[in-house]
What we know:
The protein is an alpha+beta fold.
Amino acid sequence: MLNVEDEAVQTLMGLGLTFCQAKVYLALVPNGSCTAKTISRISKVTRQDIYRIMPKLQKLGLVQKTLSIPTEWKATPIDDGLAILLERKKKQLSEIQEKTTILLSNFRKHNKRTERKEEVPEFVILPEGKTHRRWITKKIGESQTSNDIFITLKIFRNIVYNEFEQLKKLLKRGVKFRYIIYSLDGTKNEIELDPYLKKNPSFQVRYISNTPMAATVVFDKKEVVFSNPTSNLYASPKLWSNNPNFVTLIQNYFETTWKTAREHINEEH
């Protein structure tokens, strides 16, 4: 666990200083004018490094050099120093944002020029982590006609509660949703749906008691994401494909399972 001094050093490093620069500035702030020897002793940074660091801190506006023999240095008050570093950081972020916008624009122009007229069927591995979760959410948001999904009860509950507005928007646009829900821990309780979803004929939910062969999402019956049904669906890697034969295979499996799935778990005997 970091102590107060370590946290202060980390904060200054986050604002753009190096470890030694942060140590020197923090050592100098409460001690008035100090020689390089004194600064070295207080900060525990070598005197050789002090002579290298002080001109850089002076250029940043964090210290002032006094005309004395030997030379002494005085720190800019901490509130002014932090304001200087914050302003510098904001400027850097603004420049990076501008360069990122230009890079993205150039990339899109280049990608448009090299885009092939016909999309070649392919298979792509989506790496584990938040990236593919964000990708799938975006992909569902871009769907035009339907989404057929095998999903765990836990993640379905998360989607219904946290992405309700997106679901509502897509349903109004005419996109249909069919969810086949399964539970890895044997849970039998179904989720209580929002009345809007419950009454909407384009939003259908059914349940199965066994684990399916795969956890999948079929987008518009044209693309599919395929993963291990017993793994963490948010964290595990997935296979994406727009290969028509593979998509048809997964779609047929979904349709077969849909026919035998129950609309209400409490109908099970």
